[in-house]
Amino acid sequence: MNKQADGSLILDLNRAEGLPGLQKQLKKLGVPAVALKADKNCTEAPPAEYWATQFHALTSEPGKARIRPDMIPHAATLLIVAEFKKDDSVKSVAYRLVKKNKVPTCAVPGIGEGVLDPSVKVG
After folding, report:
1. Which is nearest to 94 in space by CA: 69, 68, 57, 120?
2. Please, which domain of life does this record's source organism belong to (predicted)?
């Protein structure tokens, strides 16, 4: 994860084993976020109430995204749900702002994809 001059963070998740490290980095930086691995067997209902996100996937690489911690409302947590291929590489990553008291402990794949913005470059 790289911090940019504007305060945004570039997340770079390549493989399933990187998910715990991503969670630790976000916590260390004080970002209210929960990173989960998508689980097709999850029976927990996804949060019904959420805010629209301002987080953008970068390029066509599903594990890269720019987030703006300053845009996360005080009462919200950034929910990051990563889905992985059989070889443990990233298939997709979804971002959603949920109420702090409504953060799930598991999530099914496809909770809502990040907004693809090919004009934003990693750097």
Report:
1. 57
2. Bacteria
Decide: 34 and 79 in contact? Cβ < 8 Å.
yes
The distance from CA 58 to its chain's CA centroid, rounded to whole angstroms, is 12
105 phi, psi to nearest 5 deg: -95, -10
Q: Decide if 39 contacts 82 (C-beta within 8 A).
A: no
What is the phi/psi pair of residue 37, to 5°?
A: -90, 130
pLDDT in tens, 55-96: 555 556 778 888 888 888 888 899 899 999 999 999 988 888
**pTM here?**
0.81
| Alpha-helical runs (H) found in 1-123 | 19-28
Token couple for 30: 């004080």
Contact 62, 109 (CB under 8 A): no
Report CA 106 to chain centroid distance, whole Å: 13
Domain boundaries, the chain: 2-117
In angstroms, rounded to a whole number, what is the distance separating the alpha carbons of residues 116 and 55? 9
Q: How far apart are CA 3 and CA 68, in angstroms?
A: 10
